């Protein structure tokens, strides 16, 4: 199980002391931003713009893995891809204060993209293509690969081993999960040996901020090696014809900078299925953190697991269909 109350010692005074340890002078303004995995704060600085500080969840990533994230984002920013790199103080972007590791970023405002507006998905596709063109230059060495074993098998096993599934739903949930993972394996086999590259990893609308100048990408905390489709599928939704059109718009922009292997179309619903299973286990692994029961009040109820069983049955049907034609 995850450490109970991992942020209990991260008081407002501790946050401000950590920032001032870098030579910055805080003006006392402290605003907690929406984040569950880490703790993120906007902090006022005397005679300067506010900064954003991310305090990393203890024991999740090694120092080397965090620095790989920072290095990728710095590489993107240097190539004028709109990502927000960590600021360097002294010789590093990763700092320690007490038992916590943290990084400081410039504050970047913005709003959620309006995907129904003309040209927005193509614009996003262009920048994801640029991210992947740079991400494909070299591999991560300390960050994991998005694979069936870690996202699917390990997630299923954790939920079973820690008795999260209600007894009366256990047989149904275990059966549909095993069938879903078999179908995921089949989808990956149909796709074949697709290239893996450094990804954003969690490219949903909450991690894209839009301004009049277009999008910029934030929170590369889940960056890992994986197939390009992982950074595309979360930006499409709806019926099959709608998704084909939306993905086509993304690829119109994407392929201006990066080729897209059409075999990865076999992975779209398989990756969605892995995320659905992994998401359940992610919450379960954090359940002893007091922030999680307060934020996810619907988790681990009878209705929650009934809905997950239905969801996976729907995914079985979707993975049995031919891939989208784009």
Explain briefly what this protein structure is:
The chain is α+β, with helices and mostly antiparallel strands and 326 residues long.
Helix and strand topology:
Elements lengths: L11 H9 L5 E8 L5 E7 L2 E8 L7 H16 L16 E3 L2 E7 L13 H16 L12 H14 L5 H25 L5 E2 L9 E4 L2 E4 L7 E2 L13 H15 L13 H18 L5 H5 L6 H18 L7
Antiparallel strand pairs: 1-2, 2-3, 3-5, 4-5, 6-9, 7-8
Which percent range fits the helix content?
A: 40-55%
Q: What is the ordering of alpha helices and beta strands?
A: HEEEHEEHHHEEEEHHHH
Strand content: 5-15%
- Cα shape: globular
What Rg do the Cα atoms give? Answer: 21 Å
Beta-strand segment tally: 9
CATH-level-4 superfamily name of the largest domain = Transferase(Phosphotransferase) domain 1
Q: Give a quick account of the main beta sheet: strands, pairing sense, barrel closure.
A: 5 strands, antiparallel
Q: How many domain regions?
A: 2
Alpha plus pi helix count: 9
Structural class: alpha+beta
CATH class of the largest domain: Mainly Alpha
CATH third-level topology of the largest domain: Transferase(Phosphotransferase), domain 1
How widely separated are the two ends?
Answer: 43 Å
């Amino acid at each position: 199980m995850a450490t109970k109350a991992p942020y209990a010692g991260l008081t407002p005074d501790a946050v401000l002391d950590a920032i001032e340890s870098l030579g910055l002078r805080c003006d006392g303004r402290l605003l907690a931003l929406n984040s569950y995995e880490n703790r993120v704060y906007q902090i006022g600085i005397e005679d300067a713009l506010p900064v954003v500080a991310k305090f990393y969840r203890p024991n999740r990533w090694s120092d080397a893995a965090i620095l790989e994230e920072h290095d990728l984002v710095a590489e993107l920013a240097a190539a004028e891809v709109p990502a927000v790199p960590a600021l360097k103080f002294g010789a590093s972007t990763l700092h320690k204060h007490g038992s916590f590791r943290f990084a400081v970023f410039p504050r970047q405002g913005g709003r959620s993209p309006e995907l129904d507006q003309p040209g927005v998905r193509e614009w996003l596709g262009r920048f994801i293509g640029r991210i992947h063109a740079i991400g494909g230059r070299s591999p991560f060495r300390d960050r994991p690969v998005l694979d069936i074993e870690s996202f699917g098998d390990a997630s299923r096993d954790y939920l079973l081993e820690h008795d999260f599934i209600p007894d009366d739903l256990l047989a149904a949930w275990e059966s549909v999960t095993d069938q879903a993972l078999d179908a995921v394996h089949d989808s990956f086999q149909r796709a074949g040996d697709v290239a893996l590259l450094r990804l954003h990893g969690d490219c949903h609308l909450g991690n894209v901020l839009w301004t009049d100048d277009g999008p910029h990408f934030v929170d590369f905390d889940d960056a890992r090696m994986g197939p390009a489709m992982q950074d595309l599928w979360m930006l499409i939704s709806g019926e099959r014809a709608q998704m084909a059109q939306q993905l086509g718009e993304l690829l119109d922009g994407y392929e201006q900078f990066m080729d897209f292997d059409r075999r990865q179309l076999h992975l779209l619903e398989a990756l969605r299925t892995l995320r659905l299973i992994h998401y359940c286990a992610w919450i379960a692994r954090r359940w002893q953190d007091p922030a999680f029961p307060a934020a996810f009040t619907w988790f681990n109820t009878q209705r929650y697991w009934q809905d997950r069983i239905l969801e996976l049955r729907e995914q079985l049907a979707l993975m049995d269909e031919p891939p989208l034609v784009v």
